[in-house]
Design goal:
- The chain has no helices and 20 strands.
- By secondary structure, the chain is mainly β.
- A 12-stranded antiparallel barrel has the order 1-4-5-8-9-10-11-13-14-17-18-20. It has a 3-stranded antiparallel sheet with strand order 3-2-19, with no helix packed on it.
Length: 296
């Protein structure tokens, strides 16, 4: 781990990423947020051979999707919504003497959301996410690892429930230079079959995604960065009718800029704005993100 720049990198990693919250399911559902879009710079700048420690992270994002992309990639001023999500994450980091030079993290993330769309608004607790990550360092400046999360099917209300289990698995990396850093992930999120009494049986399409962050270590306090997020979601299959549902596959590329503030050795704030650069069959990303991190 780079110890030449930034207070937080002297004491431990920034925490691992989690999946963006889904807002319920219907046969014509469209992507509402790119998976793992919440991550910031140094998300995977992780140590090995360390003493156990804890982290508490509060993620928040708001998306004012005033337009929707059609099948030809044209923005249409319809079908938009305003959504706000929160993800409160507890992480336990540790390494094992029996497995040297490898790190582990165990995570639990309850989710919260509020949606304003079509003249209606509702909010509550969404599905819970839990998982594990492990990584190693090929050299002092780089990190490679994998993480596996499972998202439960139920929230506190039907509108916030997906009604199916989702597995989110990724490969991740980080590389640190003296004045710059580059990290990101590449993953997939397959889901179980959706069964709702009295309705058709559906198999939601698998989401493939990547998230990249490139930052400039301007000073010990501030670190501006560039973000790129991409996602492609396969179409939904109607098991009852044995056919694919039309217009249910989607894709999106979003670009953003942000700033990380290293307030203290165990506390940081990260803020970012992102907007869609290209899309198909999905509401646009017009979102702001914030992340509060505390280590102990």
């Amino acid at each position: 781990m780079d110890t030449s720049h930034g207070y937080l990198r002297r004491t431990g990693p920034l925490c691992l990423a989690i999946a963006a919250l889904c807002f319920g399911y219907s046969p014509s559902a469209q992507a509402e947020n790119i998976t793992f879009a919440v991550i910031g710079p140094h998300e995977y700048d992780l140590p090995v051979d360390f003493k156990p420690f804890n982290a508490l992270v509060q993620y928040g994002d708001g998306n004012a999707a005033g337009s929707t992309y059609d099948g030809q990639g044209r923005r249409q001023p319809t079908g938009g919504s305003h959504t706000w999500t929160g993800l409160t994450k507890y992480v336990y980091f540790r390494s094992f003497k029996a497995i040297p030079h490898v790190g582990f993290a165990f995570e639990l993330i309850p989710t919260e959301s509020f949606v304003l769309a079509n003249g209606k608004n509702y909010g509550g607790m969404g599905p819970t996410i839990a998982g594990i990550a492990t990584w190693f360092k090929p050299n002092r400046k780089s990190t490679f690892g994998i993480q596996v999360f499972f998202e439960t099917p139920l929230g506190t209300r039907q509108a916030l429930s997906t009604n199916y289990w989702t597995n989110i698995s990724t490969f991740f990396f980080d590389y640190e230079w003296k004045h710059f850093s580059f990290d990101g992930d590449l993953g997939a999120a397959p889901s179980s079959t959706l069964h709702v009494k009295g309705q058709h049986s559906y198999h939601p399409g698998t989401a493939f995604f990547t998230n990249l962050r490139f930052s400039w270590k301007a000073s010990k306090l501030v670190e501006p960065f560039f973000a790129m997020d991409w996602q492609n979601v396969m179409g939904t299959y109607d098991n009852t009718m044995s056919q694919w549902l039309p217009n249910t596959s989607s894709r999106e590329v979003a670009l953003g800029v942000g700033m990380m503030f290293n307030i203290a050795p165990n506390y940081s704030i990260t803020a970012r704005y992102s907007h869609s650069a290209e899309g198909r069959y999905t509401p646009e990303t017009n979102a702001y993100y914030i992340k509060l991190l505390y280590l102990w």
